[in-house]
Amino acid sequence: MPPASLYQGVIENLHTAVLLFDDTLHLRYLNPAAEMLLAASSGRLLGSGAQQLLPSRTLHAALEEALASGHPFTERELVLELGLERRVTVDVTATPLTDPGRRELLVEMNQVDRQLRITREEGLLAQTATTRVLVRGLAHEINNPLGGLRGAAQLLERELPDEALKEYTRIIISEADRLQNLVNRMLGPNALPKRQAVNIHEVLERVRQLVQTAVPEGVRIERDYDPSIPELMGDQDQLIQAILNLVRNAAQAVGERGEIILRTRTLRQYTIGHTRHKLVIRVDVIDNGPGIPPEVMEAIFLPMVTGRPEGTGLGLPIAQSLINQHGGLIECDSQPGLTMFTVLLPINPEGGRNESRSRP
Predict the structure, then answer these.
(1) Which among 25, 234, 255, 346 could bridge 277 via Cys, Cβ 3.0 to 4.6 Å?
(2) To the nearest whole percent, how much of the chain has pLDDT over 90?
(3) Using CA atoms, how far apart are residues 78 and 64, in angstroms rounded to an integer?
(4) Which of 133, 123, 189 is nearest to 322 (CA)?
(5) Any residues with CB less than 8 A from the CB of 251 and at least 6 apart, and which?
(6) Number of CB atoms found within 10 A of residue 97's CB
(7) Pairing of strands 218-224, 257-272
(8) How many whole angstroms separate alpha carbon 21 and alpha carbon 103?
(9) What is the pLDDT of residues 308-344, one digit of tens each?
(10) Which one, of 3, 7, 49, lies nearest residue 31 by Cα?
(11) From 7-16, 132-141, 205-214, the region with the lowest mean pLDDT
């Protein structure tokens, strides 16, 4: 039989957090992965109650039930609030251990936030790609007859003897042009990025100046920049257009009075979709407006979807498309009083490397 030290070494090198509770649900043991998950040392955590360590009424009730019944259970994608502003999503498995005269509960937890994030990002990228294919097909079907209608109206206008009747053909031509413009906007940018070294803060300052002149006096635009961020390879005009769409949306959301924050940070060894990048710029556009309605949230990057009566529903899909062309992605999180659009931009989009599956 292998020595006990071998088992101990295996458990202590697992990526899975392992915790052992006694029959009163007080902690008897945890491995280093659990210390990392709970962000505290074993000396500080041993002896603590499960409810204190894992503050979830649902989970605590399930642990008590498992201990009492002797039946294991598994809970997927359970969200735990571990301290101020720290939230993790875990898969939990609890297994009762019964020995004569002793009952214990073995709890295994795998943090799945990263996998969920990557899955969500893959979904966004796939959604954008699918939408572009659909819109291009639709645009092709619309543009052909639209060109015929416009040409026929122009020919008819030349043949009409009465100047008053030409007003009708001009309406046809004008509406055809309007539809053509709408279709072109739905298609988004056609030009590939003209890459050059770009300072992201120059992009943000340009956007801030453009928006600042148009917002009411009660709207403040605050800056929280990381000055150490290096230049990235990108198309400055396209980046300005993408971020301008986000900041204008934020300004419209806060109305006459509110706050918009432009924040920059860097992320190292960060995965966007299936591609891991050494360095990624993160730009947050945060507003304290009323938030995005939940029924719109899942579709905000689709064309013609908007939560505002006066909105066109094209600004966000165009911004997403522009950022995608830079190998990046836009994400959104919203609740009443706090909406945050996050732009992820690899410093060097060509320098990323693919990975088949995320690792913890």
Answers:
(1) 346
(2) 40
(3) 17
(4) 189
(5) 211, 214, 215, 219, 260, 287
(6) 13
(7) parallel
(8) 9
(9) 666 667 788 889 888 988 999 999 989 899 999 999 9
(10) 7
(11) 132-141
The secondary structure of residue 23, as a DSSP letter, is T
Sequential DSSP letters for 281-316: EEEEEEE-SS---HHHHTTTTSTT--SSTT--S-HH
Helix, strand, coil % over all residues of the chain, rounded to 5: 45, 30, 30
Tell me the C-alpha distance between 135 and 314, whole Å.
12
- Do 16 and 33 touch, CB atoms closer than 8 A? yes
197-221: pLDDT as tens digits: 999 999 999 999 999 988 998 999 9
Identity of residue 270: Y
pTM: 0.67
Name residue, tokens 């943000």. Answer: 204
DSSP one-letter code for 352: -
Question: What are the tokens at 229?
Answer: 């961020």
Contact 186, 143 (CB under 8 A): no
Q: How far is Cα 265 from Cα 154, in angstroms, rounded to an integer?
A: 55
Compute CA distances 43 → 31, 47, 81, 105, 138, whole Å. Answer: 12, 9, 21, 20, 63
